[in-house]
Design a protein that fits this description.
- The structure holds three protein chains of three kinds.
- Chain A is mainly alpha-helical.
- Helix content of chain A is about 70%, strand content about 5%.
- In chain A, helix 9 packs across helix 10 (about 250-270).
- Chain A starts with a helix and ends in a 14-residue tail after the last helix.
- Chain B is an alpha/beta fold.
- In chain B, helix 9 links the parallel strand 8 (about 215-220) and strand 9 (about 240).
- In chain C, the strands form three sheets. A two-stranded antiparallel sheet of chain C has the order 1-6.
- The radius of gyration of chain C is 21 Å and the shape is globular.
- The chains are: A mainly alpha, B alpha/beta, C mainly alpha.
- Chains in contact: A-B, A-C, B-C.
- The interface of A and C includes residues 239, 244 and 277 of A.
Chain lengths: ~300, ~375, ~375
């Protein structure tokens, strides 16, 4: 394999990995504060992408054509919509069943996700077919042999990295982050320290969901298409990535996301069987890795409570 | 709720003119990934029934009983049993998904329910059995790919890479295209099967790019067709995009924008707007204000419903007589061209139309500027 | 037997209701029947009128089970020539069996399994492959389906034993996705086009021919109904015996607190393995019978989404209670079918209903009763 071809595969994998990581960070944040899995997350991502698309459609209909205006508005609308949606899911679906068994939370959020997905399919105009997502970034690029490096891909990667770094800063260096970490560590104690538990939970869900909105818009910009069912697989993979890395751990989610993308790329390219087996390969490796590292690659810090 | 209202109106008008009501089943995927085509088919069959009911010359009042097969064999068999065991249902317009159509042929045969398949393309549905109940208005994928392969080799495309989805639709297309293309002297550089819900094709396309094909044959439906065409552009892969009937719809163009330009595809039947009644179909369809377009197979569902109602008008609401009557269908005019059923119930006049995208529209090859030489296909 | 009157009356009411709902066609009828069911449920919960009835059922459990079987038999005779209603009824029975298998895993040992439909599919595919083998009786094929599911499940044992909670959930989720993709891309098992099954033949009985005994005529589904009912009685018996035995108590200990159970010298791994394997076996047998009845299988039937429906049945019914499983299966199979009138909106409505049930009745429709130390009278 030529170096330029290899570079192309690495770039493809990196784009995928960034999207998975952004979704996985959401899963891990939610788990951190509430010890639950919010399985509607993938569909919140899709809803974000569709909200962004709706904003674009309305703006262009109103005569706005400059990408410099459109892009920030699309991202802001998507982030605001998902932040609200995430907080609503937390308030009306997750918090009421917080003390029920884990399984209930899993199922109720999965079904909530189905409601979202079906609503997009049925109520977004033309929602049952894929929708064109506009190319708002410069599409020119450079060719190095077999490697076609596009400007928009570079921008998306850098923005994704900045967002994750920003989240890291927020969690570790701000008062809000401190509150989130306090709740994550011990809800009871955090409450007695005067932390408004409910508010922290809602803010965390809004934050994680807004990150997902960026993943959704990034998905749209990268593939130039959004689809009502896009959240389903993205959600499962994001969940797998978060678990693989170790729940509740920001770095784990990032590592998990990129690892899963790498597995898929390797499965499609470097192995002797047909590329259609790539997901069989990736999920097979996930199962094996879980047997080897039962609490994820970067293990959860909590110890068994007896 | 519009359907509830329609049913109510149907019930009221029933009492008004006292015609006998005859029920016809429509079975297709109304939920899940294939729902767009299923809803298009449902609306088209519904349109046929409404137009017939508005016709004062019709002897019977028709009611469409709509069922969702979810594109799953067990749900399909369940619905086929429901339609078959309900003696008030005289005939059925059935199935878009081949895997469901395969599963239900035995059931329809058991209950003796005459059915016309409106979208499933697997040859075995009509040819692997001798059931008199089963008919099909759309062609099989065999003819489509024969024409496609010939077109490609005639236009000098000798090296082709193939991506197909791993559903029955994509796999079947790959099989027949590869067979015909190699027979015509072409060379398949590589074949990739991809799952129908896959989003990212960059790994496959990067491999394909390194092989430098002249064209890329895609066997699959619009959603991943759109993704593949868009990602070809991302990777700077310049090859002629050659698709199948599954992408001949407005959504393909809407989702791709200018990137759709020059894409090829092949479909059975003449384009609706070129046929007697076809243009009227589109006008009537738009008049009804359905929230979904008819999609690629809507006209077939419409034609199937028409055929069944014609048969019932002639011989009355009796399953056995309808089956006997359908055997006589020969050179029948319809919005999809002439229909003739062979002894397997397969429509044998699969005129294949070649399509190319020009300026955001699917045009027939013959009408396009690509044919006249004003525009060029990729690499020509 | 004075106290038996209550259960008999209840069974009769439920049977008549089931008969009505299976036959209901028009939107008005269906809406009315659902309204009655919901009202009855709410009243029963609010007034606790049913509590003495519950005790009566408990006190004569064997009698109640006999009643339930008799009710299904009566229902089948009433519906004898209505193929579609019978098909639905048999499907309810088969899915109940499959979910009883999951119930052993989730409800007793606390092993999560999000790949229920995959093991159901292993049973189906095994049946499809083995039924072509000449000379192999089909009743053995049914059980081979279960055995195959148990064996394939054992591949997952090591990772499942080593992980907990969400980590364990991921393993079965990954397996469910992997299994479906594998079936689709692998042509030797029919690929996406699936496999056709021949007619099931057990002894002198050909299952796809209409029943005709003397002057009695009925649908061919009646034979499948008999087999499904037998399997259900068998599975129900096994599951309930298991729960009542010391094994059940052990499993409860394992589920509720692994660490504590281990300190009491219980071999956690052994009990998890046993219940996971037994559960998959039961699910696999159900899958094999289902494949025979439908006569056709394809990967589309065994998706992750189907597995989720199985899990929904467990949760809606009340985890750990076999009666709850039976009730929830009826609701989950019949509701979407009766919602066909809503066409493309039915999954949306179904999902909303599940969310509402989970929000307002998180323990499920019939939660598992507490163990009683005192023996039954």
């Amino acid at each position: 394999m030529s170096p330029s071809l290899l570079a192309q595969y690495v770039m493809n994998g990196a784009m995928l990995g960034m999207m998975y990581a952004l979704v996985a960070v959401g899963f891990t944040l939610f788990f951190g504060v509430l010890d639950i899995i919010q399985f509607a997350h993938g569909d919140v991502v899709a809803a974000g992408a569709f909200a962004g698309l709706a904003a674009w459609t309305l703006l262009t209909a109103a005569g706005v054509a400059s990408p410099a205006v459109l892009l920030p508005v699309v991202i802001l609308v998507a982030a605001a919509a998902t932040a609200l949606l995430g907080a609503l899911v937390a308030r009306f679906i997750v918090l009421p069943v917080k003390s029920a068994p884990q399984l209930n939370v899993l199922l109720v959020t999965l079904m909530g996700g189905t409601v979202l997905r079906e609503s997009i399919r049925l109520f977004y105009p033309g929602g049952s077919q894929p929708q064109l997502f506009p190319a708002l970034l410069p599409t020119s690029g450079w060719n190095f042999g077999d490697f076609h490096l596009r400007f928009d891909n570079v921008i998306l990667l850098v923005c994704g990295a900045l967002l994750i770094a920003g989240t890291h800063f927020l969690i570790n260096r701000t008062r809000l982050g401190l509150a989130i970490r306090a709740v994550a560590q011990d809800e009871e104690t955090a409450r007695t320290m005067g932390i408004d538990f409910k508010r922290v939970v809602l803010v965390t869900f809004a934050l994680g969901s807004a990150l997902a909105a960026f993943a959704g818009v990034m998905d749209g910009l990268y593939y130039n298409e959004v689809f009502f069912g896009m959240g389903l697989l993205l959600g499962v993979i994001g969940f797998a990535a978060a678990i693989l890395g170790g729940l509740g751990n920001l770095y784990g989610a990032i590592v998990g996301g990129f690892l899963f993308a790498a597995l898929q790329t390797i499965g499609a390219v470097a192995l002797p069987f047909a590329s259609a087996y790539k997901d069989v390969f990736a999920f097979g490796v996930v199962i094996i890795l879980m047997a080897l590292r039962p609490t994820g690659l970067i293990g959860e810090r909590t110890s068994e409570r007896v | 709720m519009r359907f509830a209202a329609a049913a109510l109106i149907a019930a009221l008008s029933f009492s008004a003119n006292a015609k006998q009501t005859v029920r016809i089943a429509f079975i297709g995927p109304l939920t899940g990934g294939n729902s767009a085509i299923g809803l298009g088919g449902r609306n088209s069959a519904d349109l046929a029934v409404r137009l017939r009911n508005a016709d004062p010359k019709a002897k019977y009042q028709y009611e469409l009983v709509v069922m969702d097969d979810e594109c799953k064999p067990d749900a399909g068999v369940q619905m086929a049993t429901k339609a078959g065991s309900d003696r008030t249902i005289i005939a059925g317009v059935t199935h878009y998904c081949s895997v469901v159509a395969m599963a239900t042929v035995d059931t329809f045969h058991r209950f003796g329910l005459p059915t016309i398949v409106w979208g499933a393309v697997l040859p075995d549905i009509t040819y692997a059995n001798n059931f008199k109940e089963i008919h099909r208005v759309n062609g099989t994928m065999i003819n489509q790919n024969d024409t496609n392969a010939k077109f490609m080799t005639d236009h000098g495309y000798k090296k082709v890479a193939v991506i197909h989805d791993t559903t029955d639709y994509g796999k079947g297309h790959n099989k027949y295209f590869s067979q015909f293309f190699q027979k015509d002297g072409g060379q398949i550089l590589a074949t990739f099967g991809v799952t129908a819900d896959q989003q990212d094709f960059t790994a496959e396309l990067t491999q394909i790019k390194a092989l430098n094909p002249e064209a890329l044959y895609f066997g699959g439906l619009t959603p991943i067709g759109v993704r593949i065409r868009a990602q070809m552009d991302k990777l700077g892969l310049k090859a002629q995009f050659d698709g199948t009937s599954g992408i001949v719809n407005d959504d393909f163009i809407k989702a791709l924008g200018p990137l759709a330009e020059g894409a090829l595809a092949f479909r059975e039947g003449a384009p609706a707007e070129k046929l007697p009644g076809g243009k009227k179909f589109l006008e009537d369809y738009n008049k009804q204000g359905y929230s979904n377009p008819p999609e690629a197979y809507g006209p077939f569902a419409y034609a199937a419903a028409e055929l069944l109602m014609d048969a019932i008008e002639k011989v009355g609401p009796d399953r056995k007589k309808v089956i006997a009557e359908l055997a006589n269908v020969k050179d029948r005019d319809s919005i999809i061209g002439k229909i003739t059923f062979d002894d397997h119930g397969q429509n044998t006049v699969p005129a294949i139309t070649k399509y190319v995208v020009q300026d955001g529209k699917w045009l027939t090859w013959e009408d396009s500027e690509y044919r006249s030489g004003k525009r060029k296909l990729v690499g020509k | 037997m004075k106290s038996a009157a209550g259960p008999v009356l209840l069974t009769a009411v439920v049977t008549v209701f089931a008969w009505l709902i299976l036959r209901a066609e028009s939107q008005g009828e269906i809406a009315l029947l659902f309204a009655i069911a919901i009202a009855a449920g709410v009243i029963a919960l609010r007034t606790r009128l049913l509590a003495p009835l519950g005790h009566a059922l408990d006190a004569h459990e064997g009698f109640a089970q006999g009643l339930a079987v008799a009710a299904v038999a009566v229902l089948a005779l009433l519906l004898r020539d209505d193929d579609f209603a019978l098909l639905l009824l048999v499907r309810v029975l088969i899915i109940t069996v499959a979910c009883l298998g999951l119930n052993v895993q989730f409800g007793y040992a606390g092993v999560v399994n999000f790949a229920g439909a995959s093991f159901f599919g292993v049973g189906g595919y095994t049946a499809a492959v083995l039924s072509r083998v000449a000379g192999l009786p089909d009743w053995i094929v049914l059980f081979a389906g279960g055995a195959a599911a148990a064996i394939i499940g054992s591949v997952l044992l090591l990772p499942i034993l080593r992980t907990r909670g969400h980590y364990a959930a991921l393993i079965t989720i990954a397996f469910a996705l992997l299994f479906r993709t594998f079936l689709e891309v692998n042509d030797s098992l029919g690929g996406p086009q699936g496999l056709k099954l021949p007619e099931m033949v057990i002894g002198p009985f050909h299952f796809n021919e209409p029943v005709a005994i003397a002057s009695f005529e009925g649908s061919f589904y009646l034979r499948y109904l008999v087999v499904a009912l037998l399997l259900l009685v068998l599975a129900f018996g096994v599951v309930q015996r298991l729960e009542r035995s010391w094994i059940g108590v052990t499993l409860d200990a394992v589920r509720l607190d692994e660490t504590a159970a281990a300190t009491f010298g219980l071999n956690i791994a052994r009990w998890k393995i046993a219940s996971f394997t037994l559960g998959n076996f039961i699910t696999g047998v159900a899958g094999a019978l289902s494949a025979f009845m439908i006569g056709f299988i394809a990967p589309n039937n065994y998706t992750f989404a189907e597995s989720l429906i199985f899990v929904s049945i467990l949760l809606l019914g009340g985890i750990g209670n076999p009666w709850g499983v039976a009730l929830a299966t009826s609701v989950v199979i019949l509701l979407p079918e009766k919602l066909q009138i809503l066409q493309e909106y039915r999954f949306l409505i179904f999902a909303i209903l599940v969310v509402l049930v989970l929000l307002f009745r998180p323990v499920g429709l019939l939660p598992r009763p507490l163990r009683r130390l005192v023996g039954r009278t």
